[in-house]
Amino acid sequence: MCANVIVAEDDEKQAELVRRYLEHEGHAVTVVGDGLAALAEVRHREPDLLVLDVMMPRADGLDVVRVLRAEHREVPVLMLTARSTEDDLLLGLDLGADDYMTKPYSPRELMARVRTLLRRSRRGARGAEPVADQALRCGALVVDPDRHEVSVGGRSVDCTPGEFRILAAMATEPDRVFTRQRLLEELHGFDRYISFRTVDVHIMNLRKKIEPAPRRPARLLTVFGVGYKLTDPERSASRAC
């Protein structure tokens, strides 16, 4: 699985370590030392993966992710940071990072995360071949995995990669109750650095985007003590009549 990877890391020793491991696995690697250079390289090279340190000069990693997602660039982002508080991790994921590792980390675990992200992105690319309409529908909500698009009643909704994965998973089986553990696995697989609150944050943000009244959700419902489910409010109302 040879990929084009950009490593944005201002610590030269860390950058060299990551570069060696990536090249050992057959990847082509470009190393940059600040956030603005990372943005320029992503725009120029359109890489398969960005390995991004948070604390960098000129623009930090969070700003880099914010800009990339605002430009609708779907490059997978694996963030590296010395910060380990839950709020920092959730902020990175909420902005659109795909995975997060805290320093110090095991290089072998880092490579495992890289392989997982590359497999996911390539499965998505294969799925984008226009063989048929693969859009998932739950009433007025439409999730299109091929185009990575979400709409409600014809209105386009911008979602982060994490939000999209949760919504796409739930849209495959409307009215099924998904546990927080199941949704966390859909997001990142096993990650010892992130709690179930990650899922709750994504659900809260999704409600702001797809619900007419986020504090009184009608589509993305909480099943207390179990998890969440996606439902069609119009069909639920007709059943109640």
UniProtKB/TrEMBL annotation:
<keyword id="KW-0238">DNA-binding</keyword>
<dbReference type="InterPro" id="IPR001867">
    <property type="entry name" value="OmpR/PhoB-type_DNA-bd"/>
</dbReference>
<feature type="domain" description="OmpR/PhoB-type">
    <location>
        <begin position="133"/>
        <end position="232"/>
    </location>
</feature>
<keyword id="KW-0804">Transcription</keyword>
<dbReference type="Pfam" id="PF00072">
    <property type="entry name" value="Response_reg"/>
</dbReference>
<dbReference type="InterPro" id="IPR039420">
    <property type="entry name" value="WalR-like"/>
</dbReference>
<feature type="modified residue" description="4-aspartylphosphate">
    <location>
        <position position="53"/>
    </location>
</feature>
<dbReference type="InterPro" id="IPR036388">
    <property type="entry name" value="WH-like_DNA-bd_sf"/>
</dbReference>
<feature type="domain" description="Response regulatory">
    <location>
        <begin position="4"/>
        <end position="118"/>
    </location>
</feature>
<protein>
    <submittedName>
        <fullName>Response regulator transcription factor</fullName>
    </submittedName>
</protein>
<dbReference type="InterPro" id="IPR016032">
    <property type="entry name" value="Sig_transdc_resp-reg_C-effctor"/>
</dbReference>
<dbReference type="InterPro" id="IPR011006">
    <property type="entry name" value="CheY-like_superfamily"/>
</dbReference>
<keyword id="KW-0805">Transcription regulation</keyword>
<keyword id="KW-0597">Phosphoprotein</keyword>
<feature type="DNA-binding region" description="OmpR/PhoB-type">
    <location>
        <begin position="133"/>
        <end position="232"/>
    </location>
</feature>
<dbReference type="Pfam" id="PF00486">
    <property type="entry name" value="Trans_reg_C"/>
</dbReference>
<dbReference type="InterPro" id="IPR001789">
    <property type="entry name" value="Sig_transdc_resp-reg_receiver"/>
</dbReference>
